[in-house]
Structures are given as C-alpha cells and as structure tokens.
Design a protein that fits this description.
- This protein has about 600 residues and is of the alpha+beta class.
- It folds into three domains: about 50-295, PAS domain (Beta-Lactamase, 2-Layer Sandwich), CATH 3.30.450; about 350-400; about 460-610, 2-Layer Sandwich (Heat Shock Protein 90), CATH 3.30.565.
- About 50% of the residues lie in helices and about 20% in strands.
- The strands form four sheets. The chain has a six-stranded mixed beta sheet. Strands 2-1-5-4-3 form a five-stranded antiparallel beta sheet. Strands 7-6-10-9-8 form a five-stranded antiparallel beta sheet, with helices on both faces.
- A hairpin with a 2-residue loop joins strand 14 and strand 15.
- Helix 2 crosses helix 4.
- The protein is rod-shaped.
C-alpha cells in the first residue's frame, strides 16, 4: 500500500502533488469533524428528547392516576348517598311523580359532586333488573344508551367483584352511528346497600369522553407537538386513543412486543426510524406511548449543510490560493535546478545568481553553484593533467630505448663470455638479465611467492660473486605459501640490507634465513641474519611509526630500499602493515613483514584499486 501510494505521488507533478495534498488536508478533516458532529449532536439530542419525553409521560401518567382517583372517590360518594340508594331500591314501586322528583333530586346531587369533571358526559343508574335511569347529561349530550350493550358490560365485568371497571365503548357498541371523534369509555361500579354492606342494590354506569380525559395538552414535552404521535395503548397493542385520529382503533403489535421486552415501566427504545418513549398507566394497565420520528433531529441539518457548503467553498478558495503559492515556491526553484543540471550535461558551467532565501532549495542551488565551480576547476585540472600525461608518455617512449639497449648489450656480453668460456661472468650476466627483464616487463603489482623466490635466487647468485661467498642463505619456504600474492621485489631489499648493514670485516661467514610461513590468517615474511645487528637507538622500532630515514652504527644509509618497500606495503594493505626491524637476542637483525592471507585474487593494479 505504501509503495503504491509512493509511486502514485511520484507520477504526479510537484505542483499537482502539493495542490492536491493541501486541499485534501484542508477539506477532509473538516468533513470528518462535521459528520461526527452531526452524529454526536443527533445522538445527544435524540437521547435528551427521549429522556425529557419519558419524564413528561411519567408526570402525565401521574396526572391520569390522580384524575382516576378523584373521579373514583366522587363516584363512591355518589353511590353511598342515601337519596341515590333509596331511589335505586324503591324505583320499581314509585309513582311517576315520585320518580320525577327523585330523579331531579338525584341529578342535582350528582351535579354537585361531579360538576368539575369535564370529561364525564353521562351517568346512568341501573337497578338489579337492569332498568336504566339517566340522571346526568354532560357537555357532550350525544350519548345514547340504546347504542350501548351495557347489560353485557355489567355482566362481564362489574358482576365479578366490587372493583371499578373501564372498558372502551367500541367493545360494546350495537350501533354504527356513534361519532368516532366522541368515542369514550364505559365506567361501571356496584351500588352496595349502606346498611347491610353486602347487598347489591344496583349499578352506576358512567360514560367518559376520551379526548377530555386523556388530553395530551398538559404536562407533556410541547416541543414535539407538531411532530410526535401519542397513543394510549392496551397491552396487546390496540390503540384506544391518539392525537392522530386515524390511529384510533389501529393495532400496533410491534410496539407492544418491544415494550413488553423492557424491564422498566418507563423508558425509551429505537426502531423503525422512530424513538418510542412509553410509560405505564398503572391503574388501567395501559401504556401511554410517544412516537418521535428521527427526521425532527435533522430539521436543522439543512441549515448546517448550507453553512458547511459556504464554509467549504471559502476553504477551497483559500486552500487553492495557498496551495498554488506553496507549489510554485517549490516548482520554480526545482525547475531552475533542472535547467542548471541540463546545462552541466552540455559542459556549461556558468554560475547562476546566488539564491538569498533561507530554505533548503536555496541551499541546494547555492551548493550546485559551488559544485559547478569545483567541476569547472577540476575539468581545467584534468585537461592540464592530460597534457602532462601526454608529455610523460612521450618521455616514457624515449626512455624505453635505454632498457632495451641495456638488455641487448648484456646479451652481447653474455655471448662473448660464453665464447671465451668465462662461466662466472656468464652466470652473473644471465641472472642480471633475468632480473632486468622482469623489471622491464612487470605489469602487475603483485607476484606469487614462488616467483619472488626465483628472482631472489638470481639476486643471491650475483651477490655471491660480489661478497666472495662470505654469506649463506637458508630458504625456509612453507609449501602452502607458494601461490600467495605479494608485492614484487620486497625480499631483495631486505636481503641487501643484511649484506650491506649486517656484515663487516670481523665476520667471515654470515648466515641468512629467508622464512615464509602462515600464522593464523597472516602471511609472515622474515629475513634473519646473524650479523652485527642494529644499535640500541634502532632497537624494536616499527619503521612505519618512526620513519625510514635511519642509519646503522657505521652511518650507512638504510632508507632507500626499505622505505620503498614500506610505502608499497602501506599502499597495498593499509597503514597498520609495514616492515618491522628488531635486534635478535644473540646477535643479528630480523626484518619481519606481516601481510593478510589469501591475496591470490589480486592480479593487477586495476583489480587491487577496486
């Protein structure tokens, strides 16, 4: 994913890259914050609304309970009235005049007790023989007793106990002419004889107006009046009253099932894009429910969206302006750098004006100017070196005449010595020719130990004649070292140093040991003699630390050959390597060289340089 994103941005121009990223950084966080803000606002708002509505329903249910309590107490006072009990007991034996007077007396008494209860529309007294006596007509006088099967109501409910019963009038309607807008409840209660306290002398039947009794105008969350639907619902989901007329009589079993699953009698729940708050009307066993649609919480969304669009437009304009400026501040100097690099490609090292800004691109431009200046100077130096190299090559071609002339001369001398039978001279000339031929034709920096030993043997032959066989050389060469690569002609100067600086008139025969062997991961080359040795000032000195310009006790110089070897070794293998001279415990000197093992892969100066 990271690689794809990297390649995507790398395939864009710098301007597009900076422009798009800045716009994204400016807009995306705002969108995310806005979306989360709306979600959080909606969640908090819906929860608070539901909690407030639940509290309102709690107070509403208490208000209904108080209303029922006051109503039930008033009815109890009415049925215990002596006038009413006498009227019900003696109704069948009264004359018409007595019935008229008693009815008027009872009606006045009922009105005196129930005149404040605006939801009571009609009151009927019923004898044990179910004869109905209408004693009160409330403000809504459209109730017709003939339309109600009140006998079934009394038999099915009130006959079973002395409790108060409510029932929806629609359950006992025998006529289709009842105005649905005025539908109400039937309230029934026994009338028990005050003297015997157990004898049933009749019933009281009250018709209650739903809209007046269950008015949703009091103690409810008024902010929801234009949006919410409120129901008075039976446990089975039958809606017996609602502020939406079309919902009266509907069955909302889904709401009832969700409410039945709740563990508390007053709370709220979410489903069907609504918040349903509910509270139980304990005395009736019904529920008052408020359905709050989610859309009301998004009513302010359009305002927020309009503000957001305006804000986004301004943000895009500002971000575009800033992004364009930032992109140009990068693109312009980068383009200038590219032009400068293309100019360098065509050998144009013209110095551009200095960039006096303080950012990294200014530093890069000034550094490029400095680099161009250095390249221009270096190119001039290269041209000068090439010219000098041409001169040296020309001189080298001329110098080749001398070695070839010398080799031809030595061959002539060797031929003459062979004619005259001078074997000693022939041996010297042959060895010298081999050595000179190796020097002239040697193109590699390194040769094998075996080749170096062969050249050393030729050198020893020459020196034997010079020093009249006053020295003996013992070759102790470990067989495994024969193919190891070493710098050529590094043993000859060590052997020469033994002969020149270790031999004097007091020595008749000097023994020299040439020792080459492996020690762990090192190749050890040693030339040991038993000559006069080095003085105390030279004792146990590392030549690479003290320098090569030393002399022995006789003032003989040892600097030329050993200095050449020491420098070559350091050049090939590093400063930690070199020639070590030390005094032997008896007499004589040891010259020791430690080289890295396994240098067979280095064949020439090109390979080694790499």
């Amino acid at each position: 994913m990271k690689q794809r994103l990297y390649h995507y941005f790398r395939n864009l121009s710098i301007y597009s890259r900076v422009y798009r990223i800045n716009l994204g950084i400016a807009i995306i966080p705002v969108l995310i914050v806005t979306i989360f803000s709306i979600l959080i606002y909606t969640s908090i708002s819906s929860r608070r609304t539901a909690e407030n509505e639940t509290k309102s329903l709690f107070y509403y249910s208490k208000n209904i309970a108080n209303r029922l309590y006051n109503f039930d107490n008033a009815i109890t006072v009415v049925v215990q009235s002596k006038n009413i009990q006498d009227f019900v007991n003696n109704h069948l034996t009264m004359s018409e005049l007595e019935k008229y007077r008693s009815t008027k007396t009872v009606t006045n008494e009922v009105i005196s007790h129930l005149h404040t209860l605006r939801y009571v529309t009609d009151i009927v007294l019923i004898t044990n023989q179910y004869a109905a006596i209408n004693v009160f007509n409330g403000p809504h006088g459209d109730f017709e007793l003939e339309d109600i099967d009140y006998v079934t109501f009394l038999k099915n409910t009130v006959q079973k106990s002395n409790k108060t019963y409510f029932a929806d009038i629609s359950q006992y309607t025998v006529s289709q002419d009842i105005n649905s807008n005025r539908e109400g409840f039937l309230y029934g209660k026994r009338i028990v004889d005050n003297d015997t306290a157990s004898t049933n002398i009749g019933y009281i039947l009250v018709y209650i107006d739903k809209e007046s009794f269950f008015s949703f105008d009091t103690n409810l969350y008024t902010e929801l009046d234009h949006y919410a639907e409120r129901y008075i619902m039976e446990p089975g989901g039958n809606i017996i009253f609602s502020n939406v007329i079309s919902q009266i009589g509907a069955v909302r079993q889904d709401i009832a099932e969700h409410i039945s699953k709740q563990e508390v009698i007053g709370s709220y729940l979410y489903f069907n894009n609504n918040i349903f708050t509910y509270y139980e009307l304990e005395d009736l066993g019904w529920f008052v429910v408020t359905a709050i649609p989610f859309k009301i919480f998004f009513s302010e969304f359009y305002i927020i969206a309009a503000i957001l669009i305006i804000f986004m437009f301004l943000l895009v304009m500002v971000s575009s302006f800033l992004s364009s400026g930032i992109a140009k501040s990068i693109l312009v100097p980068v383009s200038q750098l590219l032009e400068s690099l293309k100019a360098i490609e065509h050998n144009n090292f013209l110095i551009e004006p200095a960039d006096h800004h303080t950012d990294e691109l200014a530093d890069l431009r000034n550094l490029l100017n400095h680099t161009k200046q250095m390249l221009d100077n270096l190119l001039k130096q290269v041209r000068e070196v090439e010219k000098q190299k041409f001169d040296l090559q020309f001189q080298a071609l001329q110098a080749q005449i001398n070695p070839h002339f010398l080799m031809n001369t030595l061959n002539t001398v060797n031929w003459l010595a062979d004619l005259q039978g001078a074997e000693n001279i022939k041996s010297i000339i042959t060895s010298l020719s081999i050595i000179l031929n190796q020097v002239v034709r040697q193109n590699d920096l390194l040769i094998t130990v075996e080749q170096e030993i062969n050249l050393l043997k030729r050198y020893i032959i020459i020196q034997k004649f010079r020093f009249f066989d006053r020295f003996n050389v013992d070759m102790r060469i470990q067989k495994e070292t024969s193919e190891e690569k070493i710098p050529y002609f590094i043993l000859q100067p060590l052997l020469e140093n033994c002969l020149i600086h270790g031999m004097d008139d007091s020595i008749s025969l000097m023994n020299i040991i040439v020792d080459i062997h492996f020690e762990e991961d090192k190749l050890i080359l040693q030339v040991i003699d038993d000559g006069i040795g080095i003085n105390r000032e030279q004792k146990t000195d590392r030549l690479q630390n003290k320098g090569m310009r030393q002399s022995n006790a006789k003032g003989k110089s040892i600097q030329v050959g050993l200095d050449n070897i020491n420098r070559r070794i350091k050049l090939y293998y590093g400063e930690e390597h070199g020639v070590i001279l030390k005094q032997n415990e008896g007499k004589g000197t040891t010259a020791r060289i430690e080289l890295p093992k396994n240098m067979r892969g280095i064949k020439n100066d090109t390979d080694y340089a790499c």
